[in-house]
Amino acid sequence: MSLCIVVSERTVSNLLRRHRRKPPSQTWRTFINNHMSDMVGVDFLVVPTIRFHLLFVFVVLSHARRRVVHFNVTANPTDEWTTQQVIEAFPWDTAPRFLLRDRDSIYGDWF
Predict the structure, then answer these.
(1) Is the pTM of this model over 0.85?
(2) Torsion from C-alpha of 98, 103, 108, 111, nearest 10 degrees
(3) Alpha-carbon distance 58 to 80, whole Å?
(4) Which of 17, 43, 62, 98 has a CA that sits 20 to 30 A from residue 5's CA?
(5) CA–CA separation, 11 vs 71, rounded Å?
(6) How high does pLDDT run on average in the chain?
(7) In the chain, where are the structural domains located?
(8) Is the Cβ–Cβ distance between 61 and 36 less than 8 Å?
(9) Which residue has the higher pLDDT, 89 or 108?
């Protein structure tokens, strides 16, 4: 006995329960919120002078408090200089667990 009702496949698929195979992983935002107190970001800024020379500004930002932890300026950044800046930014074993940076070659092997 047929009722002559046409049901599309899309309607049926919307009504069927979907089974998840594994629990979803946390999102990037959740990771940031969970570990914000243990995270800092470092980066270089390039600033031209009035005589068109370039100065490099190294900045360390705390994500937990959204403030500048450390900065310094140099005309010739090296990997040893950059490593020393991180040591000065976090003395006495106060370094954070996570350090965010880009893949710039200015950091070198020491960093």
Answers:
(1) no
(2) 0
(3) 13
(4) 17
(5) 59
(6) 84
(7) 40-99
(8) no
(9) 89
